[in-house]
Prior knowledge:
It is built from 15 helices and four strands. A hairpin with a 7-residue loop joins strand 3 and strand 4.
Amino acid sequence: MDKQKIIANIKGLSGGRRLSAEELFDEIRHGNITLRELIATQKLSMSERKEIEVLQIQFDREDNDDWERARNGDEKALNDYINGRPDGKHVQEAKEKKDDMAWERVRYSSNEIALSNYITNNPCGKHVEEAKEKIRYMEEERRRAQAAKQRILNKLKENPNSFTPGEVKAFLQSTITENDLLDCGIPDEICRSIDNVKRPDLQLGSTPNSIPGDYTEVYFWGTPGSGKTCALAAILNTAEKAGYLDIAIGPGYKYMLKLKNIFLNKRTVLPRPTLVDDTQYLPFVLRKGNDKPRSVSLIELSGEIFQCFLKEHIGEELTGKHKNTFNALI
């Protein structure tokens, strides 16, 4: 009922039905009029005023009791208070507490649906803007992840050896799928076995002070990462399979054993570039049929030797590892 109609129905102001004190209190409780405004009409009797005041005290007491039971409860308890006391003094506080509880459930979530549901269910909630910001951030992250994935797939399509098996396994756990690999032309057999592939662990031997005079020296030059180690492994494996190889005891013995075994299987993983600035001496005897055995020294020169030459030519002083590398070559 609007305020003017309420005032018109106070005794003496209208020929219509007089509103009782309980009815007037209901209008006050629903926010349609205040007790002060009723008193200002000077048509409210003292007994009606006192009755309304008693009703207000009783309502406040019951409202406070209901709030005390609900305030430390769960969302259901808060809902019961809000629905049971729509005009209670603590309704706004109850709604804020309920909003905080709903937000607490999803604030650390990475589920966009949960965040969207919070916004839908709490359109006037305190945390709606924060929820929208989190969704925008997730969408941006998804776009970045998709772009990163596409860059990986493009590199794999251009060159399947763009990444190490370890890197591909890491991608499979977070970025790409086996179907993506198949689409890039990686054989199904490789996709199935990639979890079991291990990169060779190669450890260089020490650099010798000299090379025996009766050995044929074959020097392998190349910048770091150019494939010297892989070429050596292929040569030694081929000689081994043909029955020609007799590895000599020396500083590179263990290194040669691992090198020749890299290509034993149908599938293999190429070793990573050698990180140590050492020159490796790999002696063996080549025995081919009834021919005279030949003693051969494969010498894998450190790729950093090119940096040494550069410094020599431009007149910079060699220090540390570069000096040792250059002296070993000489």
